[in-house]
Amino acid sequence: GSGMSLSVGRSELYSRVLARAVLGLLMVGLPVTVGVEASPQEVRVGGDFSYPPFEFLDARGRVTGFNVDLLAAIGREADLELIHGLGAWHRQHNALLSGRLDVLPMFISDTRDIDVDFTQPFLIVNHEVFIRKGGPEVNDLGDLVGLEVIVERNAFSHEQLEQLAIGIRLILVRSESEAMQLLATGSHDAAILGELRGRRMLSKGDYPDITTSGPPILPAAYAFAVQEGNDELRDRLDDGLARVKASGEFNTIYARWLDPDAQAAFWERMLKLFAALAIGVVAVMLGVSIWLRTLRRQVRLRTRELAESEERFRKTFEHAAIGLAWLTPSGEWVGVNPSLARSLGSSPAEVMKEHPRHWLAAQDFRRLLTRARGLARGDRDVFSLECSFRRSDDQLGWAEIGVSVLRETSGAIGGFIVVLDDLSESQRLAAQLSFRETHDELTGLANRGELEKRVQTLLRKNSIETHVLLYIDLDHFKVVNESCGHDAGDELLGKVGHVLSDELEEDTLLARLGGDEFAVLLEAHSASQGMEVAENLREALARGTFSWEGQSFSLKASVGVVTFRAGDELVGGVLGAADSACYMAKAEGGNRSRAHVAGDDTRAGRLQGDVRWVARINKALEEGHFELFSQAIKPLQKLDEGEHYEILLRLRDAGGQLVGPGEFLPAAERYYLMENIDRWVLRTALRMLAEHPRHLDSLSLCTINLSGQSISNPEFQRYLESRLDQYRVPASKICFEITESAAMADLNQAVRFARRLKERGCRFALDDFGIGMSSFAYLRNLPFDILKIDGTFVTGMKTQPLDKLIVESVSRAAWLLGKQSVAEFVETNDLLHEVRTMGIEYAQGYAIERPRPLAERLAASERSPA
Fold first, then answer.
1. Is the pTM for the entire model greater than 0.85?
2. Phi/psi at 144 (nearest 5 deg)?
3. Portion of the chain with pLDDT greater than 90, in percent
């Protein structure tokens, strides 16, 4: 029963209830879901509750905007039934992660790449800096250092500025409109908003004293996100998007919502049409007749809309993913939906047996009652608050509650709509995500990133205390992997983590750095205390054994010990010094602890040189001092099949001279900068290829080197795939090259990495093949297409018969396995003739071509005749 009497008809009442409910939800900022429970053909779509022109509610309470129209077109092509729902963006993000939503439009970032899978990007949206007129001049992000800048919490700009950490003081708000309102008060310096959204607000004239500062910053790719692993839905969306673009409908939708020039042209055409109609004044009576027929049609359409409005309200109320309730003006239940009842741990009928005050703490109910009286007086039409609630099993939960008022045409209160967003699960999910970001998946210990963060905190701390870092590397770990397999190796690493944990104090940080390397951070410890702990850990491992399928192995480790204090050096310097001490312990026979000694001239000089290289490498990455070169790879047994070359890296020093990779890559590997370099090379190479489509057409294969540090990090794999999607370079034209030693260091991960990218169409080359002890033993199982024979064997063929035998063996093995072979370091025509005679398929070296700038090669291809 309704529990109330209103002076309007049921259809009109439901219509107004829906409009008020949607308006209330929009202002509260909680999700609204419209539709029925998902069936195999239904897709639940989310979006920001007020983000025109992308998605928003129009005056009739309908979900509309660019994303809505685009998804509707995709749905028709992909045979999907879409159920739209809007809400506060970060709530919608959590709903996508927990599976309560299937699709959510969002900007692509490295952080979000970890949590969700993206479709093909379909927009590049710039973000701009908005300031008050007469405010500071801003040309790039560096001009914002030290200023107070307003950004939307958890938005793309917030994430990017947090990662850059360049000294901008961030003021966080709930939406971009709130950011513009706060900037207008004059309390802060600037705001960073999406270009389309910000300029739209300025064009409406609501903020006459605010302007954009100039050039756009923070470009962001925009795409549809689906829950990680939902490959079928992502592929259907991609297929539908491709069809919509091919049909030209995408351009129509883009012009309707995002292209002001197209809209202006549309209205110009309309004005001309109206002028032409004015000429037909003689047809006034005919026009009146047409108008009457149109009016009757509109009456029929309006009647149908009212019926649909009533049905929409019913479906929204019953099937919404958030809790909804309808109250009488006196605060009694009219209806409760299943989502709200589930949050309270009961059924709708059982919930309505108790007064609403039963489910809230007394203090929170008084707060809610006070604000509801404000609604009744007309002070506002909606409010929200966060409070605890009591479940039927007496457990406490936490929720955000919004209340909006429903008024009759006379202005009298017809009731209230209550929205309950249960935050309990969101808090649990956030805790899980936080744990995954800071812990190693295999052992559950802290990961390298968390260790580096803790060391960085101690280096910045204003204190004279000394701290100790232990670097632990298992001795002969490779023996377990090769004799028992990688499953045994994983089991051993888990046991080592348990042994080390049992020997340490509860609050001591123990981390797995990767492979068989662990680290222990001892805060406020002296050098002697650190050595004592190192020896205790080493002896604890030595006392244990590891058994696997009848085989038994002793546990021994080498430990490097470094003492440091605040202000000493970079995080990489501390880790590098500990790694160096551990290496020396291994060189002295292993199963011992070795302290890093600053007075060791040879080692100190090398480390100091490495630290200087760290600074130069970071500066080169930031200021663009790296350059890409290329060297041709020539087919020997068949005709040329197009451009085929390897990407090489050089560094331009302050004097303009080129520095080879042999100078700086050892330091980059020691101080864990290889992944940053690989990202720069990958991004730059793909961008340059995408900018030269004519060269790309003639390209047969472009080979890009990847380090072991990169392929062992799943996050790098996601980054690589997102760049392939962004620049749309055909995957079949890209070959990734990995050294044999990098593949052997973590064989399982290398195989997973290669297989994943081969599924996309990429190819893989195994570099320096032949120098490994177990090359042929593993070759059969490696998913590589090309074997590059180590150049030292190629150059030694003339004087060393054994080198020639190795080259012939590798070439023969490649042929038997159906893989292509490449001879490196072919420096003379005699060597070129000899490797061709052996049947090797490709050659690379000075006899073919000396390395030359990639930009020069691309420009030459563009100038050559088609």
1. no
2. -95, -5
3. 31
